[in-house]
Amino acid sequence: MNQDNQSNHPPKWANKLLEWYCREDLLEDLQGDLYEYYDRNISRGRRLANLIFVLDVLKFFRSYTFKKLKNKYKMNGFMLFNNYLKTSIRSLSRNKLFSFINVIGLAISMSVGLVVITMIVESRSFDDFHVKGDQIYRVVNTRIDAKGEEMKMATSSHFLSQKLDDVEGYGYKTTMHRGFGGDADTGGKKLVINGHWASKDFFNVFTFPLLKGDPKTALSEPNSIILTETTATKLYGAEDPMGKILTVDDTEYLIRGIAEDPPKNSHFTFQALASLKTLAIQSRDNPDWMKSTNIWRTYIYLTVPNSSAHQHLSESLNQICKTENQLIDPLTITARLQPLSEIFNGSPLSNQIGPTVPTMAAVIFAILPLIILLTACFNYTNLSIARSLRRTTEVGIRRVIGATRGNIFTQFVVESVIIALLALVVAMVLYLPLREQFLIMLDGDGLTLPLNWTVILFFVVFAIFAGVIASLIPAATLSKFQAVTVLRSTSNVKLFAGMTLRKVLLIAQFSISTILILTTIILNKQYYHATSYDLGFSTDQILNVELQNNNHRLVGSMFESLPEVKSVSRCRNIVHSTRINLTDGKYKDPMDSARVHLNFVDENYLPNHKFKLLSGENFKNRPDSAQEQYIIVNETLLKRFEIGDPSDALGEKIELDDQWLSIIGVVKDFNHSTLDAAIEPYAFRYNAAEFDYLNVLVQSNDYLATIDKLEAEWRKIDELHPFSATFYDDHIEQTYMMFSMLIKVVGFLALLAISIAAMGLFGMSVYAVETKIKEISIRKVMGATAFKLVYILSKGYVWLLIIASLIAAPLTYFVVNEAILSEFEYFTPMSIWDVLGGLVVVFSIGLVMIGFQTYQAAQTNPAETLRNE
Amino acid sequence: MKGTNIGEFEELVLLTIASQIDQAYSVLICDELERVTGRKVKLGVVHAVLNRLEEKNLLVSRLGEATKARGGRRKRFFEVSDTGKAALIKAKEQRDQLWSTIPGIVFDGLK
Question: Which residue range forms the structural domain that includes residue B54?
Fold first, then answer.
């Protein structure tokens, strides 16, 4: 029994367990006993001995062998929590200014954070309703042209879809085509509807429940249509629309299904779906339809059941593209699979089927409010440390009574979390109007920002997180105090160890505010620069009217009959807006193709907009049916194809969309795109079939009345479509919508940051003055003037402001100038006056905050403060 | 008093400890009890009883010297305290008194 057997040991974990639960005074001999039995049992086999040992350890898990919990406070944590709560509430109500500044500061910054949380929660929930959601993939394409320019697109080609029919190993495939819709006519009622073309397996891939109709066959025949519930009710009321004929833009469709309205958190929505076969039959004679380069409007979705199928499919896609790329050289088009979950939040792609929020945008949008929240947390940290002098006695007494460092720490964290939760309540009040504003700003970006319990839960977690972050540093400082040191004399406390930290935090706050303010100023300047930029043509008094498929001659002549209308021109695209038309153009070298912007205009267009013709002549009026022959191009196109001077170019032929057109005029370069893009080759063509807009040049003293008159004319022709007219200048402002939104957001955040920083500074100066009130009084008795006192008291803060601006100004310069403005081809540089203007704002706010307090202190009667000694 | 009344198993344990003078520790007590009573005695049961008796102040314990055996852990040696001794004597007296009142005729056949 006593044999010394080193090689045999009972299982370690069981031993550990015993040591963990067993009381120390019982542990040693109990463990010894078990070892003794173990040694005895070892002769019966190691495994059995181990088993008995383990069982014994478990059997000794009894009430009398448990460790008494070491720290008695841990036993009554809830009681202590009550105490924390009570003392915290008392201390907060005692220091009203402190609590007010912190609650309001945190609330302001949190309200923005709440909007972001709502947005993130909602965008994470996108497309989560599809049963096969984790199996759905979209085929997306990347197109690289001869110049190496890369375009990443959400779209594919019908060619690729057809090739995929021969590939096996995936579940279902549906091909969709954008742009179904038009004027729906039931024979009695008319309505404009929008939707997509979709192939037969649409409902096998996606989960959009059908209320009526068979999902397997509803889209399998040509000229079939599926309406959503809402659309069906609008068109047919209470009648059953199934099996009825609906005419959409002169094509007849059989209604073969009624779908539930698509959920709001779907990355694409529709009012109607038409069978893709309809479009395929209509496009039979279109040579582009099956071309592999026609990758602009088609979407392919697949279900891929597992990773091996995914790999097989990816390889097949690569193979198809590789073979095809040899035929379409110098273009390269590659395809890959994009999971459904990365469609709404993912890398940015063009030609999306619906609105998306790219990950980058979401991240940036989440970081900015976090920075603002941080500045509010700095306020808490600063003010807590500043007033901790008063709380040293409290901490000392607590420690004498027996509180551990942990207890003190927890107490201050609880206090801060209470502030944060109070702030959350205030933030909720601010959040509601903010959310409304935000929704207006996001208009049509697919987000509805619903407020549900998940979101509220995140809010509370967020508030607690903010509270804990804010309290970490003060709680650590205060809990470090030793009872003896603080109780003997408060002057021994090394409070000013925190002074550097406070300065750093203040500087950080003001740097952030300054950066945001400067950014706003610069962006604002850019915006005005962009909207009032000399584009190279005139937009004055031009009203753009959407034709909406009405006859341009008819509408044009109706408008021209009004005395206020000077002239009417026609075009396909509004120049300098987001809608553009691109095509590949060729000159003499068949291998050299270049991207050319296209617009279709009539003979009045160039004079109406005062384009400058450098050589040649304008288009001449011609019948709609005549063969197209001529183009007018810009200077850049001449440079691109090395045609030479404008006068040499006349008569030269350019190939656009398989037609050779000869140049009859050259216009001076103008900004056809937004100012972030360079001027590219541009060509005007004359083709009446393509006109979408009328440009009405009006001259009137009362523009509103003129618009009303135009609308009255419009009503005579078209009762279905609402009259849609925008002044050209407003159109340009809409083009820079994103820009003005950015200004609003950054400006708003700057406002928040500066008010939070100002409140913090205000609080700090209040405490500084309070602690120095005797010094001030004595100085005053000695004969210091009020001005001198203000100078002495605010000197330190002014230095902080100066350091903050020295950090902020160059930083803004580099970030804004290098990162943002360099994206613009045509921008105004940031000037020293912009910077100075911003700094003046920050300084005056800062000085008012400090000056007000110190001036008041300097005005007090020294007798008042000194007699209480 | 509650403390002075002891149960049957407790009495056995106390007696075993007393019989071992100052060498009684848990494993040895188990072995002795098994030898005397002939029934299987579990360490867990003995341990709990020892703990209870010590709480009642019927036992005192001390830790012995560390040896290489038992994984280097010391033994806890038990001795019967004065209260324990008194309890044992009291229990014995009660029994003796009862025995003395039993007429010899009752056990005639068995002796």
Answer: 8-93
